[in-house]
Amino acid sequence: MACVAVNSLIRTLELEFLQPEPRPILQEMELIPFNKDLIQSLHSKLGFLIQLFDESRMNGVEAIKDLETKLRDVAFRVEDEIELHVVHLYKEADEEMGQGDTEAMKTQHCHRLSHVLQQAIEDIYAIKEELEKVMMEYKHVIAVAGRETKLVDDVVSKSDDELVKTDGSGSSNRASHTEDIMVGKNNEFDIIMKMLIQHSSKQREVVSIQGMRGIGKTTLARRVYENPSTVSHFDRRLCVVVSQYHNKRQMLLGLLSSKDNVNNNSDEDLALQLNQSLKGQRYLVVMDDVWSRESWNDVNSCFLDDINGSRVLLTTRIAEMATCIGSNNYFSHQLQFLDQSESWELFHKKACKSHGVEFETIGRPIVEKCKGLPLAILVIAGIFPEDYEINANNLGRLWAAEGLVKPFKNESFEAVAKRYINELMDRNLILVSKRSSCGRKIKEFRVHDLLHAFCVREGQSQSLFACCWRKWFQFPSERCRLDNCVRI
Q: Is the pTM of this model over 0.85?
């Protein structure tokens, strides 16, 4: 992504030129005072431009993709030129020590860096102009971006729901199908049902289902929501998809879907209407795919606590959400991967109708590589890379070396890296394999093969590195970022 390249360049500018104590050779050559305005201008323009790209959020628009690629290439080129300039400073200083005109060398290097910075600013400005033009031309795309995001969420939810359907009839009575095909989740279904129905607490409790994407959170929540015991136990049942880029009004309208003439009401009126509709009712509200505390705060006040056993069931990929929103540990569940027999059962039922010897010979290795992730079992049919234990400390140093780790004041690089890795764990994106003796620090971890395949694919598409197979190690013909070559 362009943001990775731009953030790396921003960090290089800060490390080389904007910190209180830059390299002695930069001070000796007086490069910073001579180019101070250009350095600060480039730094601010980069930050503004990456924010502009983020705000446009026009996924799928080819013109935006082209501009992001152009920005990425500019950022990588400028960072390379700056780092090479510093290397040449040391080299030329050694070669010309006591032989050349120091003042002339200062002037030469100052103008050389000035040229690099001026060219970078011109390129950034040109990209900004093109981006603003594209944003105006595709203004209608931005206007419907929220609806497109909702459509994507619906598609993902439906794809996830396919895990529990035995046919393609599209019948609205999906509960009858889920009983037969919800592979490997019966125990977890019982756990959630106990939290919702059988627990003695009469207070309104928030029950959370957490786990990585594709593990079956939506499927399990839907099965619980449509179960006959749930239908008979609760007076009202409401369900809404939240998603990463939540919209308060859309959530309120979704929860009031059975109501008429609400589209012209204000958000406050909608919240009051929802509040009144739940008053005195024992209700179940399902909030699917919760990403932030803000999305919960937008609707939390609508969910009354009449001390009658009402429940809110939320699904999330982020452990922190389950912790800060959920009632307590008694009402939180971490969804587990399928074991090998469960994985094969799901694959066996969904792959095809012909189950001969060849089907099992080919299918078994594929299923094993999916590592118990239901979505991967359905969509992955290729060869996966082998597992690799990642050392957390080494990864932190690599992040720092690439300028990807930016500490706050009085915070070390190690502390920032630890915070980032813990956030990856909270988002269920890594699998912790080794902790420190006290259990607080992550020492080694793995990524799921599905995530690894995605990262490799993105890295190759962004020319960050090239991949070479172990048995056929051949360097790529096209130049990659820093000539990185990863063996998989």
A: no
Q: What is the pLDDT of residue 287?
A: 92
Measured at the CA of 409, the angle between CA 405 and CA 412, to 5 degrees, comes to 50
pLDDT of residue 482: 47
- The Cα 283–Cα 329 span in angstroms is 21
Q: How do residues 153-179 score in pLDDT, each as one tens digit?
A: 343 334 333 333 323 333 333 333 333
Contacts 24+ apart (CB under 8 A), 389-395: 389/433, 389/434, 389/444, 389/445, 389/446, 390/430, 390/444, 390/445, 390/446, 390/447, 391/443, 391/444, 392/417, 392/418, 392/421, 392/441, 392/442, 392/443, 392/444, 392/445, 393/417, 393/443, 395/421
Instruction: For residues 75 and 4, give the distance between their C-alpha atoms in angstroms, rounded to a whole number.
Output: 9
Domains and CATH numbers, the chain: 2-143 (no CATH), 151-334 (3.40.50.300), 340-379 (no CATH), 390-487 (no CATH)
pLDDT tens digits, residue range 343-366?
877 777 766 545 566 667 767 787
